[in-house]
Amino acid sequence: MLDVLLLIVLMAAIAIGYGLGYRQASRRASFNARSSYQTPRREYFVGLNYLLNEQPDEAIHTFIQALEVNSENVDTHIALGKLFRTRGEADKAARIHQNLLARPALSPQQNEQVQLELARDFIALGVHDRAQRLLRGIIETPQQDAQRISAKHLLVDLLEREKAWQEALDILLPVLKQQPRMARPAAHWLCEIAQQEIQQSSRSLAKRHLKKALQLDSACARAYLLLAELEIDNGHHYPAIAHLRALAQHAPAHIPSMLPTLERAYWLGNDIDDYRQHLSSLVEQAPLTSVIIRLSEQIRQQDGVEEAIRITGNLLARAPSLGGLDHLIDLYIESQQLEGRTQPDERLLLLKHHTRALLNNRTRHRCGHCGFSCDTLEWQCPSCRRWGTIEPVTGVEGE
Ligand SMILES: [Zn+2]
To answer: Where is Fe cation annotated to bind (predicted)?
Structure first.
């Protein structure tokens, strides 16, 4: 399809190129030499011919050939390359940038700028090893100008895609103070390393990495959860509970995510009364459906179904939710069975049928950045690739 914008830019670039050439020529050359600059090169007419015959690719190729590289129009070439890349034609962009690098007219700074663009082309083409080589070459020098910072960003992004967590950290950590928004991804990379270490039974190393993750991002729910699970696996339920208390304080959106681990910790210590007390304080902090249901279940086991119905009813009056209603119906059905009814009330069963159907269709987790939804919790959003943005959905239809 004819890309009018690209062709306009190319023609303008050629016109500027000739204009510059003409000006320079008029400064230093004779009339005869000057007149040769005023005559457009043959490629210009060939390109125009392609354009008129609606052959845009051939026209673009010919125009690029016509546009000579000099120190004044390097930016135009780079802009053309970017235009191709954004059109999804990174191979053409790479050709333009490789052609530029072959020219002796570039200053060292322009050379690095073109290398950076070529690395972006290689990333778009999926040729990551060549992109990495170029980027590592740029960041080798100790200066910290905008070009090197961009190169570091690109390289860190590449290493993250390849799950080379430690390599990404090695590049990022020395400059993290200037990039505070990268603290959260860095904390998750440390969690990734810790998970690998847990699998390899290096628990003390894992613990060290998780504590480092919390130094970088005190709201990293994942690090608190992993630390709590490590403590449970070591048979230490009090430290596990302390980590989960910190999680609830620093990352309250993840209270629903921590409830299974919290239950395991209290069961390990056989502290059922303390567990109930902990759930009650969590309900006061955030009356979330999943906390209310777990508290209700605890009351049912300890004080019976009627007490569970009474307290759950009161809590749901404060924080109504579909999941809470579904749980309350279960309690009513159990209550009727305990009264000696062989079959529960048909109306209750009908209500239960509807709440279940609605709950089955709900979204359980959602990315706060791009809106991606998923059933199980993902620490990196598969859609926007941000870390720690997916949280349990709360509210009337949520957890
Ligand atoms: Zn997302």
So the answer is: 367, 370, 381, 384
322, 362 contact by CB (below 8 A): yes
What separation in Å is there between the alpha carbon of 223 and the centre of ligand 1? 20
Q: Confirm or deny that 367 is annotated as ligand binding.
A: yes
Distance from the alpha carbon of residue 222 to the mean position of ligand 1, in angstroms:
17
Mean pLDDT of 96-108: 83
Q: Is 384 marked within a binding site? A: yes
What is the whole-number distance in angstroms between the Cα of residue 379 and the centre of ligand 1? 10
45/325: higher pLDDT: 325
Question: Which pLDDT score is estimated for 168?
Answer: 96
Distance 373 CA to ligand 1 centre (A): 8
Distances (CA, A) of 42 to 39, 57, 63, 194: 9, 18, 10, 63
pLDDT at 190 over 80: yes
pLDDT of residue 63: 66
- Indicate the residue type of 282: L
Query: Can you give the pTM of this predicted structure?
Result: 0.79
Q: How far is CA 314 from the centre of its chain?
A: 40
Band of pLDDT at residue 29, cut at 50, 70 and 90: very low
Q: What is the per-residue burial (b if ≥16 Cβ within 10 Å, else e) of 190-227?
A: bbbbbbbbbeeeeeeebbebbebbbebbebbbbbbbbb
- Element (DSSP H or E) covering residue 95: helix 90-101
- Provide the pLDDT for residue 2: 45
pLDDT at 32 over 50: no
